Amino acid sequence: MPLQFHRAVEDMEIWSASSDHYSFVISFQSPTGPGFRGRLGYVASWRPLHQGRGAIRVLGSPLQSFAEAEDACNTMLNYLKGDTDSSSQ
């Protein structure tokens, strides 16, 4: 089942989802303007839910669209669960 992202912070472009003991976050960053600063795009990250560890950026971030970031998170979740067969999506 694909991750179901929901808006995590009302005044910022931050979405979160969790599944199978992993937490995923997508945030929008830009070199200027409100919110996170950095290269323009959507940054996807993940971490184990109950281990108190820092987040790990999903390879390819920042991405050009929210849909690309969402797909990257779902691909990472499948990898973490041990299902590296991308044709099953």
Automatic annotation (TrEMBL):
<protein>
    <submittedName>
        <fullName>Uncharacterized protein</fullName>
    </submittedName>
</protein>
